[in-house]
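Risk register update: the risk that structure generation would not scale has been downgraded. Supporting records follow, first protein first.
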Amino acid sequence: MQDTVGIFVLGTAGCGKSTLVAAMANWMDQGGLPNQIVNLDPGSDLIPYEPDVDVRDWITLADVMEEYKLGPNGAQIVAADMLAIYKSRIKSSLDLTDEKYILFDTPGQMELFTFREAAKEIVSSLVPQSYLLYLIDPFNARTPSGFVSQLMLSSLSRLRFQIPSLEVLSKADMMDPEMIERINRWQNYPDILMNDLLEETRASPSLSTELAVGINRTLEDLGVASKLFPVSSANGTGIDRIYEVVQLTYGAGDDLPVSDGDLDESMPL
C-alpha cells in the first residue's frame, strides 16, 4: 500500500486556490479516491468546501488581532508562524491509515506561507509524501513582465519547499481567446517572450531591461513555462492531468483510470 500523499495548493491571493481544492475533492469523490481537505488559512472567512481538518479550530485571525492587539497585517504574520505550534494537533487530526490524498488549502497571501519557516516545517512533517501545486492566475500574467513574475514566484516556492511541484494556469474557463493565444505563444516560443519583454521594458523606464532578461533566461533554463497547462474549477478542465502527474510521481491511485493526454507536451490551448 502506498503512503498518503499531501497536495499543497499554493498561489497569489485570488488565484482560485480554495475553489480548486473543492473541485479536486469532488473529482476524487466521483472517481472513488479517498481524500481529505485541510484548511491551513486562519484568516479565511467563507470557503467553498467543508474541511475535514480546519486550522481555525485552534487559530483565527480575529482572535490573534484581539489577543496581541495587532492590525490585520501583523496578525496574519503571527498566525502564519503559529501554524508550527499547532503542527502536532493538525497531524493528529489527519487520517493517515489508508492510501489517500490530502488536499491542503494554504493562506491567501502566499508570501505568509512560502517565506515563513513555520510553513516549511508544516510541509515537511505532516504527511509522508508531499506535492506542491502552484496556481498561476492568467489575469496577473497578461503582460510579459507579469507572466515572467508569476513564473518567478513559482520557482521561488519550489526552491523554498524542495518537493515535487507542478505549475498550472487557473481560471481556464475565464480566459478569452486573445489571452490564450498570447500565453500559448510565450510558452511555446521563448524567443517571442524575450522580444515582447524587451519591448515592454523599453516602453517603461521603471523596468530594468537587464534584470528582466536575466530572470527570463533563468526561467527558460529551468523549463518552468513549458510545463504549464490550463485548469478550471468551474468545468473540471485539467484536474485529471494534475492527478496523472502526482500519480506518476508517487505511484498512488493506480486503480483510477487516467486521461490520454501527453504530459510532456506544452499547454494544450
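Supporting record for the second protein:
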Amino acid sequence: MFESVDDVIGQLAEQGYIADKSIATVVFLAARLEKPVLVEGPAGVGKTELAKAVSKASGRELVRLQCYEGLDEAKALYEWEYSKQLLYTQILKEKLSETMAGATSLRDAAERVGAEDSVFFSSRFIVPRPLLHAITSDDPSLLLVDEVDKSDPEFEAFLLEVLSDFQVTVPEVGTFEAVRRPFVFLTSNDAREMSDALKRRCLHLYIDFPDEDLELRILDTKVPGIERRLAEELVGVMQRLRKLDLKKTPSISETLDWARALLALNATELDEDLVRETLNVILKYEGDIKKAQSELGRLITRKSEEPAGEAKPRGAAPASPAAPAAPAPGRPTKKGTLH
C-alpha cells in the first residue's frame, strides 16, 4: 500500500491532504501492522478527511459508519428482509406442499421443512450495513467509524469483536470472517473517553489545530485562488481567535469556509467592517461573536501598523500605536500537527 513514511506524505499530498511526519508514520505503521487507527482531536481539524485521503491514495473503497446515540449492532451490521423472505415462502408454497406430501406425522412434516432451512435463512435475505459490507467485501476497503465517541458504551464493546478478530456474527446465518482485512479508522471529538480495551486495539493519533505556517499551506492547497496578503491576514486573525475563551473554537474547516466567503465578496484585504460582517461564517454562537467583536482591534493587524524597523512574526499578538500588546497570560499557543 505504502512503501515508506515519505511515500505516505507524498501520496496524501496528491489527494490534497497535507500530513506531517508524525501523521504519516502512524498511517504507515497501521497499514503494515494491519492495526486500526483511533484519531482524536477537536472537530474540524481533518480527522475524517484523513481517512478519505488514505482511501483514495490506497485505492480502497471507503465504507463509512456514522455513529450516533442509540446506534446498535443491528443498524451497523445488517438488515433482514422479512418481506423478501415472505415472498419466497409464497412462491415456493406449492413446492413446500410437495415436500410434506406423504408425511406420516406432524414431527415428520416439521423435519422435512426444517431440512430446507438454508433456503429461507441465508445471506440472500440480508442487506449488509457498513460493518458487514466492509468485512465481506472481496475488494480491499477502508472502514471509517466516524465520531465513535457519540455511540453508546454497549456499541463500543460490540466493536471490540470486529477490531480483534475482524469477524461478525449474524444470528440467523452464522459468523462472517473478513475475506480481506479492511483498513480501519475511528474518529473521536472527545465527547467522551474511549475505553482502554478499544484504545489497546488501535494505534493512537491526536490531531490538534494547525500552527500558522501549516494553516497557510492548507489554505493555499484548498483555496488556490486566494491572494497571499489576504491569506496571511485571514490566518493571523484565526490564530488570534483561537486564543480567546470561546465556546466553539474555530478550526481549519472554518478557515476554509471564511476564505471562500471572502473570495465570493471579492475581498482583497481585511478591515474591521468586513470581519464584523462575516464573523458568523467562522463563529457558531452569539456569545462568541460578541466577544470577538469586542476584540476586533486586537484581532486585525497589518505589517504597516508595526513600528518601523521591527519585524513581527506572523500570528503574533497585535500592537497598539504606542507599544506592542502583551500576549494573554496563561493561554499558550496550541501546536497543531495536521489540518
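The chain has a mean pLDDT of 83. On this basis the risk owner (M.S.) recommends closing the item.
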